[in-house]
Amino acid sequence: RANTALLFSLSLPVLVGAAGLGVETGYWYFKQRELQTAADVAAVAGAVEKRAGNTSTVINAAATTEAVEHGFEQGVGTIDINDPPSSGAYQDARSVEVLLTMPATRFFSKIFADDTVTLNARGVARYEDGGQACILALDPEAPGAVTFTGNAVSLINGCNVMSNSLSDNSLIVTGSADITMPCA
What is the largest CA-CA distance in the chain? Predict the structure, then answer.
């Protein structure tokens, strides 16, 4: 019995450390995914402002605001917004790059290591000009501003279907309608 108690007491710190590292690894993965989401959303916000023709100041403000709203802590981490991106495939005038860096907190693994774990995320968004619209709904708030219903079978070539409505369901396809178009 004494040998078992002795072995258990000697192995307990290793078991606690391994369990802690497992829990922390999951936590770090969660924080990395959260940071990546913040970078992606911030890049899209910057590209939207860029497409609208706004200045770098407005683009940076929009990207920073979205990053903070999606979990990035500005006082703790760093944010770099590049317009155009400094690396990668989309280094052009239509793209915005957001680089986020944040330290992750150590809990149980502080027993074994004291260095900081740093999380990094990169998001790039690129906008495209809209094509010609042959069907355009003008109401800014209407649900179902563009509706295809019943047994409609439509093939729309060479132009897009667009709606100015900000309603969550501004484009509705119901019944057995079958619509083919380049972009909606």
Answer: 85
pTM of the model: 0.69
Residues 102 and 71 sit within 8 Å (Cβ to Cβ): no
Token pair 């078992």 is found at 4
**Could you tell me where the beta strands, DSSP code E, fall in the chain?**
78-82, 95-104, 117-126, 133-137, 146-148, 153-155, 160-163, 171-173, 178-180
Those residues with Cβ within 8 angstroms of residue 48's Cβ, 6 or more apart along the chain or in another chain = 62, 127
pLDDT band per the 50, 70, 90 thresholds, residue 10: confident
Query: Between these two residues, 153 and 40, which has the higher pLDDT value?
Result: 40
Token pair 């944010």 is found at 79
